[in-house]
Amino acid sequence: MEKNQQKDFQPKIIGFLCNWCTYTGADLAGTSRLQYPPSILPIRVMCSSRVDPLFLILSILRGADAVLIGGCHPGDCHYQEGNYYARRRFALLRKVFDSFGLESDRIRLSWISASEGPRFAEVVTEYTDKIKKIGPNKIGKEVFL
Amino acid sequence: MSNVLEIKGNPNECVRKFFKHLLDSGKVEGIFALGKQDEGFHYLLVTDSAKLDDIYPFTPFMPENAANLLSRLTSIKKFSKRIAVFIRPCELRAFIELVKREQATRENIIFISPICGGVLTFKPYAEGNLENALPDYWKAFSKKENATGIRPTCGACEHFIPLNADITVFPVDDSCEFYLNTPLAEEVAKDAPGETSEGELDETTFAPVMDIRKAEKEKLFEQLNLENFGIDGLIDTYGRCLGCHGCGTVCPICFCALCTFDAKENEFTPALFENELIKRGAMRIPPNTIFYQLGRVTHMGISCVGCGMCSDVCPADIPVSSIFLRVGEASQAIFDYLPGKDYEEPVPLAAFVENELTDIED
User: What does pTM read for this prediction?
Assistant: First the structure.
């Protein structure tokens, strides 16, 4: 039973995708009819620096199995420097997760440009496989939060 | 090489004499320091030198982090006249962090800060025993040891020598040495009552204190065992949290007038309750305890000076400040940042370097 559950486990990944690069990249993956697992739930943000670390903490506490931030490659930000700030915030949050012994593999930062449809599909597939191996996020069932 | 001014008397008397000189000579218009009223200790702003008997700046007690108070006084407008401010090193560092965040202005302030032996917790104060604890405190201070009853993060504090003070005060036996670190300090200390000589604070004499503090910190972190927390550890530790948000209120770095965690935005709506209950089958009311604690350490940990106010006000005795110190130091290490070291150094989250942190992105 337990094993079956593990096998059928379809991770739920929240994706905060930047409007100018990753979201468009995801669009391209769609229009190019690329196959990738239906595990990602995209939320469009205008820039990866719009993502407050609290969004990630809240997602994990509310039971998301993983969170992916997608932004433009360094140097390509529509707002010149937003993704650099996003990177620092992400590094900080990773350190907080590590310090508390929480699974920092459940959060990820990827640079995917608007032309990288195949890379988007690849990142989602690869990340889904990784989260499948890690298993479901048990915080979603905790009562005393 | 800076000038040293030596004034005789017990620590509080020395500083009072010096303040009297500052006020009477008109070099400053006001004094901001810890004062005493019957059994209560509060910060005071004094402009009349006849009222200086009410101040007890060296009392090892912190009713509120003074950075918080100075921010309230200077966030809208700078001091129009020069004020001498006597605060502890961590309060000064927190103040500098607030200046960087445009929550306070440093103009017209002359900072006087002591070599700090830590402050006592609220416990003896609440029981009316603060005065009785003082002799032991000063005995330990002169022996360069950690006094009993000080805040855990004070015992583990490595920044007891003020970093950006105009004047550093070091109480020795029955006199006080005032190290005049800036031209402004030398100007105001001219003709002050006491012996002036050339000299510099010899930081090597504090090496034993540093060793004690370092060992204490290691012990504190070991007891905390944060890296093995996981979600179970978080629930165990913060299970006692009442959700009063007192730790955020007293935190000098948490300056927001309306905290995002108190905002309607993070309120649970009936629909949200229903949603969560379908998933979990039961839930703690009020919710969002761990969200608050994790969120606060993420937002403010980078500037945490480890003053220990948060632990002291916690009605449930959660070691908030030890956790903040541990996570704060870890996150400050990423950017090689020491809060309150430099007015000009930007807060790490408000700056970036193009080629950095390549190991966390992909």
Answer: 0.94
